[in-house]
Write a structure and sequence with these properties.
Blueprint lengths: L4 E5 L1 E2 L2 E2 L1 H17 L3 E7 L3 H7 L6 E6 L8 H15 L3 E3 L3
Parallel strand pairs: 1-4, 1-6, 4-5
Antiparallel strand pairs: 2-3
Length: 98
């Protein structure tokens, strides 16, 4: 959704990493302050289970990019997947775990 806030999650072996929930929580605060919808973006190989767990949070929408090329994590495939999504959907902000 154009103008949404995206909270990008990290997965490991098909499960969301703890930092993902911190990123979503920060996104919720920003979304509430700006009156914008929050969407979680789950990237990884075999990440459907992680996406289902993340979807239980207070979100407008969840997005899943499930691709075998995203396991193990390397920056180039993740960056390319995000770049394509951002170009197509044009979120207002993209929050990534650090």
């Amino acid at each position: 959704m154009a103008g949404a806030i995206w909270a990008v999650t990290q997965t490991e072996k098909g499960e969301p990493k703890g930092i993902s929930y911190e990123t979503i929580a920060a996104g919720q605060k920003l979304a509430d302050a700006l009156g914008k919808p929050l969407e979680a973006v789950v990237l990884g190989a075999g990440a459907r289970g992680a996406a289902e767990k993340v979807a239980m949070r207070k979100l407008e929408r969840g997005r899943l990019i499930d691709d075998a090329g995203l396991e193990p994590y390397t920056p180039d495939p993740y960056g390319a997947a995000l770049e394509q999504g951002v170009g197509a959907e044009r979120p207002a902000y993209v929050l990534v775990p650090a």
